[in-house]
Please model this.
Amino acid sequence: IEGLNRISSIVTSMKAFSHPGSGQKIPANINRSIENTVTISRNEWKYDCELELDLDPDMPEVPCIESEFNQVMLNLIINAVDAIKDSNKTGRSVSGFIKIKTSHDDDNAIIEIEDNGMGIPEKIKDRIFEPFYTTKEVGKGTGQGLAISHSIIVEKHSGSLYFTSEEGKGTTFIIKLPLREDQL
Model:
């Protein structure tokens, strides 16, 4: 029964995650979107780290193109896992940890994706949102994930995507999305 419940949860999450929607911003429950993305991505992170959710129970619905928001979240989760794996390849043996937190202020929904991976080296911090820029080995990454994510959040949603990072300690990506269409 537990296995069937898990399968049912995965199928439900996959349907919600992959639903193309209208391409228009509509009010969405981003906490549920994040939960679905975490469920879908579980095989990417379950062997390498723990993933903790700290979701604001009072989060209002956020006008967004939900399928594109899901794409951004999936990309940031996979990047966090890759940073943790890379960290462990260097001999820095850490128990991988990703924390996704939501909160809001009067104007914005705030989503933070924190990892305890390698961190981003100072010399490349200015380049990580550039198209085709990647530090991943050949065949692993295209350098499109963060560029596309930045475009989706900033250009399509009038939000912001930025990060804080300390080399050797980890990175936190922060997404801010306007709570009201009249803020756009």
Notes: The chain has a mean pLDDT of 85.
